[in-house]
Description:
The protein has 396 residues and is mainly beta.
Amino acid sequence: MKFNKWTIGLAAVGVVSLASAAKADEKLSAVQSALSSTTISGYVDTSTQWNFGTGNVDNPQYAYGAGKADGFNLNVVQLSISKPLDESEWASGYKVDLWFGPDANTLLTSSTGVANDLTIKQAYVALRTPVGNGIDWKIGVFDTIIGYESSESPNNPNFTRSYGYSIEPTTHTGLLGTYRVCEEFSFSAGIANTFGATINGRANPPKAESYKTYMASVALTAPQSWGWAAGSTAYAGVINGYNGGGSLPNFAGGTQNVAGNQTSWYMGATLATPVTGLKCGASFDYLDSFSTGPGVGHDAYAIGLYTSYQATEKLSLHARGELLTLQDSVAPAATTSDNSQVWALTGTVQYDLWQNVISRLEFRWDHGDEGKYFGGSTANSRKNACMVAANVVYKF
Length: 396
């Protein structure tokens, strides 16, 4: 082993031994090797938003939308540290996603159950076992396996979240395995503590010992031989378990508690088209909530349709239409309906002028089909809610 002149000089006067220096160099080399495959990334997500009208007490209750009307917003800062799995048979790695800012409160992963501006979004150990084509495992806290949209705003076609995303689980603490049968087909299955996001949460005693949350999904990808449809994807999944702190929008002053046993069903697809740069998508979410009690929504479903067009290298256009129905929900003050039903249309223009920056302008219209859900008091309530927002995200 080669030593630098400084180490040799210290050894000559008896300050260090060459044997201990060799061991120190070996440890340092091991640390450097581990760090060399670690990546650090993330983003800073900001926005400004204007909601039309003055009755902005009760705005549409989609995820991460509360408290952002008529002002400038820091949404979230994500810091990701990870070592991805390599191609070896017994590969190992990890991923940690940290959230800082107001959206971290909404995620509600805190193990204390108290919302705060710093939370863990994901933190898992990744492992591979050489069974067949290899099973990839996640052990710890990981994102939910269903949904058309991501918790990470830069990965979505629109700035605001859909109602489908808003009724889905977000994260789980448990074990998830994924197996790729071939390039066109893969499936996942897992077990977690609860349906909800609270890290290390447990099912309602005395169920914690035996009652867990179970999940499974399948993914299909169209092969290259399908011509213009190549790369199209279809996905389906189901999650069943106990949710200790779930909530749904009721459009009558915020959200309603739906803690209890829940099952979430999801189907989604993205279709490539013969038109270069044009993709279409669809999603369906159905949430069965078995909670009981006055004012508790039992079932909810959301349908979403998506269109994205990459007009130029920098310019892309995105549209989303959706319907949310909450069955047996709290009836808003201005209606006697048993159901809350809302239609929404969102249009987004994205132009990436600066390097590493996503810049978007978005218009969103929500319409109450069964009653006047928006605007605060009964006197100010209305059937329509409109907003325009600008979103700027720096990715590093």
